[in-house]
Amino acid sequence: MDALAKLELLAPETRYEPDGDVGQSCPPAALARMGRLQDCITHAAMPNGRRIALLKTLQTSACERDCNYCAFRQGRDFRRVSFSPDELAGMFMQLQRAGLVEGMFLSSGIAGRGPRTQDRLLDTAEILRRRYHFQGYIHLKIMPGAEKEQILAAMRLADRVSINLEAPNEARLAQLSPHKVFMDELVQRLRWIEQIRQSMPGRWPSTTTQFVVGPAGESDRELLHTTEYLYHKLGLVRAYFSSFSPVPDTPLAHHPPTSHRREQRLYQASFLLRDYGFAFRELPFDDAGNLPLQGDPKLLWAERYLLPSPLEINTATREQLLRVPGIGPQGAERVLQARREGRLRHLGDLRRLGIAAQRAAPFVLLDGRRPARQLSFWDALDPVSAV
């Protein structure tokens, strides 16, 4: 089987392996160039905002584990394929030279235990870096059970490393992946990554993890409690939440898919924990420990706490500004800068700073007054300002 045929077999089943913010669409010209590789290439936004084309694939679809949701689980009847490190690295370089891809996301089924599989991933990355002198983006997956020396080697080769927790705790993981060990096989590897960062100064890759949302019966409270720990204690740059979608011929084949709205709310809440100074205990969970699907969690918090006591824009701290719907980290910095030059008195002042003024209006005071009570002539001509 040729390498492109192998890629086509592997690509459709890598949906639980996110990297960056996947683009909503791909330019038609790029799709035409990709041809049969469309499902193998992901257009993803990197942390600096640049969008690049990633080859997303596996070293092998052979796997000795029996995860209840996974297309590659042991014993499932489908055609398995594997790449040798030389074959995969060489094929990637052909695609890169053709202008089809700029980086690689490389994961794998576990064949011959975690350390052996990790060696094959490392060999592929080593060939790319040393033989082909590839300097672009590489994301390497850390296998369950990988050794600390292997993790250090991966961190020296990659721009990003990750290990999938899949579930927020030991009990939930047992329902998804009965033979994975949450703390010893998975969380311990994330701790080693952070220990390396702290003990060995240098430029190290970022770290992410991923949760499969829904089939283990976990609550949003469980997921976000673990997420807060990962952000603040283990230095993760992002937790990914993948809505469960059933795979035929697996133990969870008849489990209903998870709503993408739930996934969206989890992302919004996780960003509040990571970027907006919110604590886990402040998130608006319902009695079942889940986020309400009908509203953005930041908006729900503001409706409870800021509607009765609006925030004065001209005196609020950065931390307080980040609590206002419509104001993000960059907007808060622009408000602080603008206040050094004069007072902010109208919604138009906020709008000129790139803030979603209509969204913020119910929750703020401008120079001591609610915005709707102090319209300027120009704001009065703009119906948005009166909201």
List its traits:
single chain; 10 strands; Transcription Regulator spoIIAA; globular; disordered C terminus; 3 domains; alpha/beta
- Examine the secondary-structure arrangement and name the CATH architecture of the largest domain: 2-Layer Sandwich
Number of strands: 10
Residue stretches low in confidence (pLDDT < 50, at least 5 long) are 22-34, 373-387
Number of helices: 15
Main sheet attributes: strand count, strand direction, barrel closure: 8 strands, mixed
Q: H/E element string?
A: HEHEEHEHEHEHHEHEHHEHHHHEH
The helix content is 25-40%
Tell me the CATH topology of the largest domain.
Transcription Regulator spoIIAA
Estimate nothing, just give the exact number of structural domains.
3
- How far from one another are the termini? 62 Å
The residue-averaged pLDDT reads 89
- Which strand order spans the largest sheet, edge to edge or round the barrel? 1-2-3-4-5-6-7-8
Assembly form of the protein? single chain
Could you name the CATH class of the largest domain? Answer: Alpha Beta
Radius of gyration: 24 Å
Structural class by SSE content? alpha/beta
> Beta-strand percentage?
5-15%
